[in-house]
Amino acid sequence: MPIKIFKSTDAGAPTITGEVDSLINFLDAICINGYNSQTLTSVTVSSGVATATLTSHGFEDYAVVEIAGATPSALNGQHRITWVDANTFTFATTAADGAATGTITAKVAPVGWTKTYSGTNKAV
Questions:
Q1: How far are the Cα atoms of 15, 20, 21 from residue 122, in angstroms, in the given order?
Q2: Residue 105, helix vs strand vs coil
Q3: Cβ atoms of residues 34 and 27 within 8 Å
Q4: C-alpha to C-alpha distance for 102 and 107, rounded to whole angstroms
């Protein structure tokens, strides 16, 4: 997934406030940790399309989400959302048809960088 879009209007989006460590926390959310982590109520797969259900998730069409905690494991990882409404979103998958189990979470996927050093008010 070469393109990821981050917007200040995303649900749970990090902000830069002018406080100490605000920029580091912002960059950590975008680049390393992701944001807007939600626990899914259910995930079902039918014909290569996974449908995730949860209440008022705030994810948007075409956002890349990171799914974790799902069985089958083919659901875990980063996926581009193909459709949303207030309480569901869908994404393509290679997982077999059926209902997923586990404590399944979704969040806006980070860029995928790592932090090699951190100290008081600094990071690399």
A1: 17, 10, 8
A2: strand
A3: no
A4: 16
